[in-house]
Structures are given as structure tokens and as C-alpha cells.
Specification:
The complex is a heterodimer. Chain A is an all-alpha fold. In chain A, 85% of the residues lie in helices and 0% in strands. Chain B is elongated and about 55 Å long. Classes of the chains: A mainly alpha, B alpha+beta.
Chain lengths: 170, 110
């Protein structure tokens, strides 16, 4: 997907969000915004696959996902969250996981801008697979937190990378 | 666009929205135009993937505007109808008119 598409789409969402936030309560506008992000992902992912360099984008996204996994594991060990109580450990795990994916999304987008939404889609697929296979052994809120925030983290990381490469406001 | 190839329904609607909007056609306005006229709350991703497809077919062209603070420093990407787009739209409209001709009241598109 050309980065110009992502740039334009995010700009359009920001503009319409501002209009909606003035006309309705902010939580309604927030809900609309995140629904738009979620519903746009299949179309944008399809667009990314259609464009040239699909394989390189996939390689970067898969590489970023592996790096995020390693970074998450190393951070978890370094901080020693296994020693924490159950709820604190789960919260720390979500924060570390989402931060790792966001960082991976940022790096992936710096290498290849379309890789960030592809990484988000990969992470989403992995979390859904884990939700199906893990059954009731993991709390639902924990699974949903990863399902929502991990892909969003990758998109946010990609948007941050795009912002850094964008020309300044005239 | 190859001769005989018909527009998809979303392509048809997006092209009509671009026609209505003229110089003000960009992702957000196209999305809102479709929503206000049809009630369909399409995602911005669906709008852009359709516009990209239309541009690849040579039916519309795009140019980048200036970045604005309201858009978080991101530029608008304006779309305008090309001659091939007008032909495709007329052809699709004519196909629908012919297919609906003679049907009971309520289907007439003229």
C-alpha cells in the first residue's frame, strides 16, 4: 500500500473525528474513529497485498513480529514479572506486549511503510488463533486487551514513523 | 478501462460521489457524500481502495494538497474525474437503464 494512502486516510479520519467530536460526545466520536480503523484494515491490507513489493513487505512484517516476540520475552525476564501477583503480572504482560508490537510497528514502517498494517493483521491473526486454542485457561479481558491494543499499537507505531518522515506543515 | 468491462457497484457509487463533489472530492468528503445520500457508513479504507482501483483504471486522477493542522499535518489527496471515467459512468448508467427498462414501476432510472 502506498504510504500516501495511509497518510491521506489518517488525515481524513482526523478531520472527520474533529467534526464529530464537536457535534457529539467524545466517546461517540472515539467509538466511530476506532470502528473506522478496524473496518478499514481488511481493505487497506488487501490494497497492500495488491501493490508491488508485497513479498518484501511480508518479510519485514514477519521479521518485525519475531523481533517483537523476542523483545517481549527479554523484557519480561529482565523485569522479572513472574514474581508479581497474578493481576499485576497480567497487566504488566499486556503493557510489555503492546509496547513491543508498537516498537516493532515503528521499526517495520521505517524500513517499509506498508509493513506496519501488515504486522497489525499478523498480530491480530496470531491473537485470534491463541484465543481459540487456549480456551478458558487465560482470562477473557487479557485476550481482548491483546486483540485490540496489540494491532492498534502496530498501527500507532507505523503512524509515528510516517509522521517522522512527513514534510513539516507549511 | 477495457471495452465491455462494467463498473463494480462501489466503483459506480464512488465515481458518482466524485462527480457530485467536483473540486472538493477527497477521501473524507467522498465517504460523507455516500453516507448522506445512501445511508451507507463505509470505512475510509474501502473508499481509498476503491479510489486506488479507479485511478489504476485511469477513470480518476489524484493530486496532493497542502498539509493542514486540522488533519494532524497530513495533506489531502484530491481526486478528479477523467474523460475515461465519465465514459465508464455513462456506460454503466446506460446499462442499468436498459436493464431496468420495461420493468414494473419503481425500477425506472430515467
Amino acid at each position: 500500500m502506498p504510504s500516501r494512502v495511509l497518510e491521506s486516510a489518517l488525515g481524513d479520519l482526523a478531520e472527520e473525528y474533529a467534526i464529530r467530536a464537536q457535534a457529539a460526545p467524545s466517546h461517540t466520536a472515539n467509538y466511530w474513529y476506532w470502528m473506522q480503523i478496524g473496518c478499514s484494515m481488511p481493505s487497506l491490507f488487501g490494497l497492500a497485498l495488491k501493490n508491488a513489493g508485497t513479498l518484501r513487505t511480508l518479510v519485514v512484517a514477519v521479521g518485525a513480529q519475531l523481533c517483537a516476540g523476542v523483545a517481549e520475552d527479554l523484557t519480561t525476564r529482565a523485569i522479572g514479572i513472574m514474581a508479581l501477583s497474578d493481576p499485576a503480572r497480567a497487566i504488566a504482560s499486556v503493557v510489555i506486549g503492546v509496547t513491543s508490537v508498537a516498537g516493532a510497528g515503528y521499526v517495520a514502517a521505517r524500513i517499509r511503510p506498508p509493513a506496519a498494517p501488515v504486522l497489525a493483521a499478523l498480530v491480530f491473526a496470531v491473537v485470534v488463533t491463541l484465543m481459540i486454542t487456549s480456551g478458558d485457561s487465560v482470562p477473557l479481558w487479557y485476550q481482548l486487551a491483546f486483540l485490540v491494543f496489540a494491532p492498534a499499537g502496530s498501527i500507532a507505531g507505523g503512524a509515528l514513523a510516517a509522521r517522522r518522515t512527513r514534510q513539516p506543515i507549511s | 478501462m477495457p471495452r465491455g468491462e462494467l463498473l463494480g457497484s462501489l466503483e459506480y457509487i464512488v465515481l458518482l460521489a466524485v462527480t457530485h463533489l467536483g473540486d472538493e472530492a477527497y477521501g473524507m468528503t467522498v465517504r460523507r457524500e455516500i453516507e448522506s445520500r445512501t445511508g451507507r457508513d463505509l470505512s475510509i479504507g474501502a473508499i481509498y481502495s476503491t479510489l486506488e482501483r479507479l485511478e489504476a483504471k485511469g477513470l480518476v486522477s489524484s493530486y496532493t494538497g497542502e498539509p493542514t493542522a486540522q488533519r494532524g499535518g497530513r495533506a489531502k489527496r484530491h481526486f478528479r474525474m477523467e474523460a475515461e471515467g465519465k465514459r465508464a459512468l455513462a456506460s454503466a448508467h446506460e446499462a442499468i437503464r436498459r436493464m431496468t427498462a420495461g420493468l414494473k414501476r419503481g425500477w425506472n432510472t430515467t
